[in-house]
Amino acid sequence: MLGGTGYTGGELIRLLTAHPEIDSFKASSRSKAGELISDSHPNLKCLLDQRFIEYESSAVDADVVFCCLPHKASMKVLEPLIESGHRVIDLSADFRFEDEKIYRENYASHACPMLLGEAVYGLPELYREEIRKTSLVANPGCYATAAILALLPLMKQRGLDLTRIVVDAKSGTSGAGAKPNVFLNSSETAANLKPYKVTGHRHQPEIDHILSRLNPDVSVNFTPTLAPFTRGIQETIHIFGEPIGDPRKAYEDHYKNECFVRVVSDSFISNVVHSNFCDIAVFYDEGKRRLVTVSCIDNLIKGAAGQAIQNMNLMLGFKESKGLMQIPYHP
Amino acid sequence: MLGGTGYTGGELIRLLTAHPEIDSFKASSRSKAGELISDSHPNLKCLLDQRFIEYESSAVDADVVFCCLPHKASMKVLEPLIESGHRVIDLSADFRFEDEKIYRENYASHACPMLLGEAVYGLPELYREEIRKTSLVANPGCYATAAILALLPLMKQRGLDLTRIVVDAKSGTSGAGAKPNVFLNSSETAANLKPYKVTGHRHQPEIDHILSRLNPDVSVNFTPTLAPFTRGIQETIHIFGEPIGDPRKAYEDHYKNECFVRVVSDSFISNVVHSNFCDIAVFYDEGKRRLVTVSCIDNLIKGAAGQAIQNMNLMLGFKESKGLMQIPYHP
Amino acid sequence: MLGGTGYTGGELIRLLTAHPEIDSFKASSRSKAGELISDSHPNLKCLLDQRFIEYESSAVDADVVFCCLPHKASMKVLEPLIESGHRVIDLSADFRFEDEKIYRENYASHACPMLLGEAVYGLPELYREEIRKTSLVANPGCYATAAILALLPLMKQRGLDLTRIVVDAKSGTSGAGAKPNVFLNSSETAANLKPYKVTGHRHQPEIDHILSRLNPDVSVNFTPTLAPFTRGIQETIHIFGEPIGDPRKAYEDHYKNECFVRVVSDSFISNVVHSNFCDIAVFYDEGKRRLVTVSCIDNLIKGAAGQAIQNMNLMLGFKESKGLMQIPYHP
Amino acid sequence: MLGGTGYTGGELIRLLTAHPEIDSFKASSRSKAGELISDSHPNLKCLLDQRFIEYESSAVDADVVFCCLPHKASMKVLEPLIESGHRVIDLSADFRFEDEKIYRENYASHACPMLLGEAVYGLPELYREEIRKTSLVANPGCYATAAILALLPLMKQRGLDLTRIVVDAKSGTSGAGAKPNVFLNSSETAANLKPYKVTGHRHQPEIDHILSRLNPDVSVNFTPTLAPFTRGIQETIHIFGEPIGDPRKAYEDHYKNECFVRVVSDSFISNVVHSNFCDIAVFYDEGKRRLVTVSCIDNLIKGAAGQAIQNMNLMLGFKESKGLMQIPYHP
Q1: Shortest Cα distance, chain A CAs vs residue B80, angstroms
Q2: Which of C182, D260, D287, D297 is most buried by a 10 A CB count?
Q3: What is the structure's pLDDT at B60?
Q4: What is the reported pTM?
């Protein structure tokens, strides 16, 4: 795997270390090559004796390559690997849009647009069969995962106004990464709520892009807020209109065969963090004709590294839940 | 004042203790009469040597009576006081609706509906002159305060769809009161977000009721979430449509003479807690035609006891900000 | 198992649900018999479909009985089970002292003192072989586990004054249990530190009792403080004197074969919570002749349910770490 | 004042803004000269319209100069000011030791050692009269303030072993400053406890230095731990021996005329933060012959900027508590 010093990389290393089907893996780091992985991730002390390696594309010899590099860096490093036939799971946004225009408007011009058509959006609940067969998975963004899972069962619902969906998202600080800055300084985040990119966050077009494949009416209005804890995303989603039938039943039916999506009465951060589960609660206000769904995930697991492992399991023919059945905690 | 053991009562005692125009006050408590106030509110140790008294209506002799009793208890105790000519500031919901029907649908049947017409809704930024003259102030709910202040400047705006306003509210735990229960147990709230009364919270009709006096189209869709800190409310408010002119300018104009409402770039919990300020930030997404306002207050101060003092200042002819200019803290 | 609605009981249920050698288990509850276990522990939603049962001693048919009842209740329920030959792991304090006098002074008079001599103190790092053979394990207290593990390697060290050990302990709120009270109300614990039982906490004699078996000089001075997070205990232990040799080396040697004790550079809460590990860091101040050890555990896992599973594994001949190798998280 | 962008500087600006005897002040910043102060400290939005100025020693014209620069930078800038007769309150460690050797061993060699003898250690509870007369106050360290206040009443107590005092300190993150780094990143501090400088912290010699003036036996053993909240220091102090008389009474007598030291039953962070108070609780364990005192302050107020204002009040002949009587909050 590429880029193991960040929080997503660390989580992937934790999951790979404990995965029963994985014999060995290597993790690279530009800044920490040669250092013990457990110096960067002290949760692994005494459990993993490996060091970060220097990345050399020619030396890659793995069933799957995970890439945890930042947006823009990722595509440059991955292009030769993909072209030489490696199977790749990229956790950046670089391959999430088959339309280069959307990528360009939200990130930058793309280094290898010809590869965009090959990538599969790595949400198993939507593209399970495609993931099994592809050699390039674009792992979804954390906010996008929670939102898309919470909206999928409504894509064919009549009576709802999908053109004015409000997604009010709250995220723990680990979603902003391991690199320190003033915004993330603990004295600035403790006992606080900080909306940021109130309009124009880049996961908004990602959600629109994926869901409009299913229903061209979809338009989400996304606002994220930084919340004072480390892990977890909660999205409260407001949809106007009058659904036909019992909406909770629609969710239960849609997800009845999914092992990581739970339709619940209360979707709280505490019930999903440290696990790969997504909990979704559904409410309907008859008087106001408003449907509300609340969706929670662990941003680093179902929102990043856990979903990447889920995709790896599919690509390599393992049981989809292998290495991912960690039960969340109470309290 | 009546009912001094809760968090709102304690905050009122703190503000009265420090208020430069207040010579003396008495605080009653049914359960703690005779005990030191500072045993219930240890922040006051060595600063206030008073004890809670037993409440006797006949003995009330005060320029203003504050009532911090719960809904339903409040009106029963206040009825004789109001009728005997005392000036009263009630912090419960009992006198917030002039229409008894709304109260009945959301709380209970009213004990003294004939008094409803006399009460003034105690939001100085809206009813300053009425508050000066009345003898019965219904102090607004905490969520309602933050929402109404954030929406007031839009009531005459054209181009906005006021029929589908989404108010996504987050509150610290002190809003739920001092009485312990499982939902508020610290192990259940730490590092967590817990939506509750996702539809049907009783502050929704309060906001609708007050704002529809200004614009009959208004209909808010309110969802609160319990957040892991003690003080503060943040409301992210989503309004669809295309406002005429610069919306931030509209807010600045509307509030240019208000001492407790600040129109800011970023409205964070940390910048208002421990003070009577309300911070409002305004954003507009041209692409999606969505206006977003973020409104923050300290739920126990501007959302309860501080606003009650602000109302007292108006009623007694003091400077409106007297005893309330505590600057918030950083960090 | 007996008593499954509390936090320790819930943690035990989580561990049993995921344990690869456990085919089935039953959990009783006096107050919630007949209800879904996952209604009390919503982390288990969709993962465990069982209900709490009513406890009947005659119906007990299990390889091991876990008891999560409170002190005093535990011994009364367990006496007939033990006498009829069941193997029991008791998580209360009722069987931790072979000397009835210590129990009486700190808890109450004992209901079945004749059984005290049969119980083994369930700290595998000290009594592994005895645990394998016994039918009654007294699972250690959470604070005692962290303290004893941090002091064991010093019991034969010369040069230290073991008569004046200071154990300054900090605990998350889950150690105080699931039952709500004012002290644990989230508004009272957030952003706070609250020392309690500053002198005379009942884990002090437990630590003294166990360690004085190894060195009669030992006398610990214990003070706990409630800290603002859910899980984790950290104990900073100050010992005066001049140790012979490198003290960190002594710890590494002592624990080199233990799978759950890690001798580390920094012992932080975050590196052990959600796991069965105990992290110990060792420092020596030459100038002041003071040795400091910092010991961290998850109070509900290594400090309670995880250690109980560790004991069960020993009693039933499973690998000691079976079902307990969950890697902690970063961040 | 010099250096206004950090947390201590910001707190001083907040206190000066609200101080009834202060007509005007200026705040300098090397990095932010010309910018609005309220851009760095958004709590001051709409309340303070000033900008940071560039510092020029020749232009200083103030009754008192506060210096919030870091250790080592402070003395260099202050030397010419002091020599030209300005009255100075320095919040760094540069003038806290009259013995240059201690400064050198713990910080660096001193730039103007001849000035060390002129400085008064700015703890009003100990050096009130000296502070009134001096033109150079060395404002105490935050940890030192809490520890010295908690130990002062014991300096003449017989029966206690003052050579082995353990000071186990816990501090919120604001004590580590506003400059971001990995150790302070919110994902690394939330729900965590991180001991640091377990031996050898520089406030240890400061406490020893001041207290040994009163009793040459004193030797403290100091260990600090970073705790997951923004403001507040709590020190649990363990002293062996048998005090003569009631120790709590000794504290009450010692502090009976002090307005900012409160002898209380429970010394909790929550009861002092956002105020200039120091709360001290006293416990004695007869069985173990251990005295425990728990001391709490707000590290940025009584531990820094508030104490500096208290010193200014003394130097300028104002009432000592002027501008500092903000009551703490509950909850």
Answers
A1: 37
A2: D297
A3: 86
A4: 0.97
pLDDT at site A276: 98
Take residue C134 and report the two structure tokens written for it. Answer: 């016994």
Tokens of A253: 């039916």
Residue A193: Cβ-neighbour burial (10 angstroms; 0-12, 13-18, 19+): buried
Q: Is B78 helix (H, G, I), strand (E, B) or coil?
A: helix
Residue B89's beta-bridge partner residues? B66, B137
Residues A191-205: tens digit of each pLDDT: 999 999 999 999 999
- Using DSSP bridges, classify how beta strands D194-195 and D220-226 pair: parallel, antiparallel or unpaired: antiparallel
Q: How far apart are CA A312 and CA A297, in angstroms?
A: 19
Question: CA dihedral in degrees (A308, A309, A315, A320; nearest 10)?
Answer: -120
Sign, Cα dihedral of B304, B305, B307, B311: positive
Q: Which fold would CATH assign to domain A143-299?
A: Dihydrodipicolinate Reductase; domain 2 (3.30.360)
Q: Which residues have C-beta within 8 Å of that of residue A114, sequence separation ≥ 6?
A: none
Is residue A320's pLDDT more than 90? yes
DSSP state of C111: S
- The Cα D11–Cα D309 span in angstroms is 10
ipTM over 0.95 threshold: yes
Residue C56 one-letter amino acid: E
Cβ(C146)–Cβ(C217) below 8 Å: no
Which pLDDT does position D59 carry in this prediction?
A: 82
Of the pLDDT bands very low, low, confident and very high (cuts 50, 70, 90), residue A99 is very high
Structure tokens at A198: 């109130």
User: What confidence category does residue D57 fall into, taking pLDDT thresholds of 50, 70 and 90?
Assistant: confident
Chain C interface, mutation test: which of A5, A22, A46, most C Cβ atoms within 10 Å?
Answer: A46
What is the rounded distance in angstroms from the CA atom of residue B12 to the CA atom of residue C62?
Answer: 58
Q: Which one of A46, A68, A112, A142 is the catalytic residue?
A: A142
Judge whether A142 counts as a catalytic residue.
yes
Domain ranges of chain B: 7-140+302-316, 143-299
What type of residue is D257?
A: N
Residue B267 CB partners (closer than 8 Å, separation 6+)? A195, B234, B279, B280, B281, B294, B295, B296
> Which residue type occupies A331?
P
Q: Provide the angle, in degrees to the nearest 10, between the axes of the packed helices C124-133 and C306-316.
A: 40
- CATH code reported for the domain at B7-140+302-316: 3.40.50.720
A228-243 pLDDT tens trace: 999 999 999 999 999 9
**Cβ distance of D43 and B326 shorter than 8 Å:** no
pLDDT (tens digit per residue) in C238-265: 999 999 999 999 999 999 999 999 999 9
- Hey, which residues of C are catalytic here? 142
For chain C, positions 231-290, list CB contacts with chain A under 8 A.
231, 262, 264, 266, 268, 270-271, 274, 279
Q: Which is nearest to C304 in space by CA: C100, C7, C5? A: C7
Chain A partners (3+ C-beta pairs within 8 A) = B, C, D
Set of chain B residues whose Cβ sits within 8 Å of the Cβ of D186 = none
User: Which pLDDT value is given to residue D251?
Assistant: 98
* Tokens (6 digits) for C323: 């079902």
Closest CA to D26 of D56, D7, D2: D2
Q: Say how far residue D291 (Cα) sits from the centre of its chain.
A: 24
The subunits that touch chain C, with at least 3 C-beta pairs less than 8 Å apart, are A, B, D
Let me know: does D88 contact D81? Beta carbons within 8 Å: yes
What is the pLDDT confidence band of residue C39, given thresholds at 50, 70 and 90? Answer: very high
CB of A183 less than 8 A from some CB of B: no
The low-confidence residues of chain B, meaning pLDDT below 50, are none
Q: Could you give the dihedral angle defined by the CA atoms of residues B182, B183, B187 and B188, in that order, rounded to the nearest 10 degrees?
A: 130
Beta bridge partners of B88: B65, B136
Answer yes or no: is pLDDT of C58 > 90. no
Kindly give the interhelix angle for A124-133 and A306-316, rounded to the nearest 10 degrees: 40
